[in-house]
């Protein structure tokens, strides 16, 4: 069995009187595609916001295992940029790109979190800075090719078709070389053709060894891509298991009453 890379214990998040996350346990294993599903308002995005340092959880623990460094890192309470440095990268439910920057620049920004040249280099452009900059550009080209956006690299992000903007967000996240990639509804708003392309891309990224945790409403996508699925309702985990187990789980069927689980 593969190793755990993310471990979450008893995560709870209160907003005033609203308990958006209620004692949630979840783990992600190295190399797997895990999915987090649940009805609207279940707390899925809140969970990502807690993982990535946008929200400070009311209770609970978040650990990231960096086996390559022989480290167990507690992410709770860290600022978003620190969380990214440790190896969690994400995309957003509502696309967040730099619209007036080029596609290439949007990816380069993701990469800059791994280099020291960014801040200092803005003032003193020495040979080391230039070399790092060249490496960043080269890597960004590779990633853009991977996600199929090379032909757009000099276009402003805002001018890309919608599906391509979503893929650019994934490219920017990949540029941080994450241990775990978090995708919040990557297929939202996509047409069927774009969705198929996205499924292929996610599969390809996973084949490269990238561990992925994705939130998604498209059941067909979730069922076909995921190794394991976690189901939330009202801030609580109500089920977890392989797609075929989740499809038959009575609690899940009840939570999705009126919706297609076995799409
Ligand atoms: N910053 C906030 N302040 C107050 N309440 C919040 C905040 N963020 C989320 N909530 C509440 O927490 C609950 C969970 O919201 P969340 O956005 O995490 O759900 P979700 O599962 O991602 O839903 P969707 O599928 O619609 O994206 C909701 O009741 C929401 O109103
Ligand atoms: Mg959400």
Automatic annotation (TrEMBL):
Q: Where is the ABC transporter domain?
A: 6-259
Single GO biological process annotation from the record: L-isoleucine import across plasma membrane
Q: Which SUPFAM superfamilies match?
A: P-loop containing nucleoside triphosphate hydrolases (SSF52540)
Give a yes or no for keyword Cell cycle in this entry: no
Q: What is this protein called?
A: Branched-chain amino acid transport system ATP-binding protein
- InterPro entries linked to this entry: AAA+_ATPase, ABC_AA/LPS_Transport, ABC_transporter-like_ATP-bd, BCA_ABC_TP_C, P-loop_NTPase
**GO cellular-component terms in the record?**
plasma membrane
Q: Gene3D superfamilies given for it?
A: P-loop containing nucleotide triphosphate hydrolases
Q: Name one GO molecular function term.
A: L-phenylalanine transmembrane transporter activity
Q: Please provide the record's keywords in A-Z order.
A: ATP-binding, Nucleotide-binding, Transport
């Amino acid at each position: 069995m593969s190793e755990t890379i993310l471990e979450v214990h008893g995560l709870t998040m209160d907003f005033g009187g609203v308990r958006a996350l209620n004692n949630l346990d979840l783990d992600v294993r190295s190399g797997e595609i895990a999915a987090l599903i649940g009805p609207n308002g279940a707390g899925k995005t809140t969970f990502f916001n807690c993982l990535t340092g946008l929200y400070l959880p009311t209770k609970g623990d978040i650990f990231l295992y960096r086996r390559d460094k022989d480290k167990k890192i507690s992410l709770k309470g860290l600022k978003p940029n620190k969380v990214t440095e440790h190896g969690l990268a994400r995309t957003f439910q509502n696309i967040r790109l730099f619209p007036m920057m080029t596609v290439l620049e949007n990816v380069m920004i993701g990469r800059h979190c791994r280099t020291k040249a960014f801040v200092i280099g803005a003032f003193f452009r020495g040979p080391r800075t230039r070399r790092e900059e060249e490496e960043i550009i080269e890597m960004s080209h590779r990633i853009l090719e991977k996600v199929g956006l090379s032909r757009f690299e000099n276009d402003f992000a805002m001018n890309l078709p919608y599906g391509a903007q979503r893929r650019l967000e994934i490219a920017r996240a990949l540029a941080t070389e994450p241990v775990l990639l978090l995708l919040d509804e990557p297929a939202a708003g996509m047409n069927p053709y774009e969705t198929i392309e996205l499924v292929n891309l996610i599969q390809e990224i996973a084949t490269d060894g990238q561990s992925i945790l994705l939130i998604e409403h498209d059941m067909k996508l979730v069922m076909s891509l995921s190794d394991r699925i976690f189901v939330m309702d009202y801030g609580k985990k109500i089920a977890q298991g392989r797609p075929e187990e989740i499809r038959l789980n009575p609690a899940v069927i009840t939570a999705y009453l009126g919706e297609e689980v076995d799409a």
